[in-house]
Amino acid sequence: MIKTGNVKWFDSTKGFGFITDDEGGRDILLHANVLRNHGHSSVVEGTRIDVEVAESARGLQAVEILQLDLPDAESDVVLRGVPELGIDLSTLQSDEPLTPSRVKWFDKVKGFGFVNLFGSTEDVFVHMEVLRAYGLAELAQGEAICVRTAQGPRGRMAIEVRAWDYEASQDA
């Protein structure tokens, strides 16, 4: 059975979250493994999602993600919270392509972390607000992602963060 709805909440630490059903039915359990099978380690609340569900002893459970509509962010939304870091937003425009990267570390409590671009040892700063703007709640160490970067006052920083297969999904 196929259901459509919005992510109600998702907690990567707990390894699950719930989807509200557009038809008004019971909430649907979304397990971290199902999300990982779709190439994501987290997702923010409100994200539109189509899932194949199965009935279990505990209710409806997503077994496969068919469509995950992450928000399209605008630069003023993406970079909210960044001015507090002393960064002039007008200097962060970039026409660089999305670059495959690996998460070095990310601390959800601190609200930031670092990634390494493939083929480079340079650390790239990633702010929590940039993740949220692109539908991600956090990153896991070693996770493969794609980032678009710009030069900030203290080095490169991510101004767009996408799932590792984002570009491929746009060509489909």
Automatic annotation (TrEMBL):
Pfam family, one: CSD
PROSITE patterns (UniProt xref): CSD_2 (PS51857)
Gene Ontology CC terms, in alphabetical order: cytosol
Residue stretches making up the CSD domain: 2-67
Molecular function as annotated in GO: nucleic acid binding
Protein name: Cold-shock protein
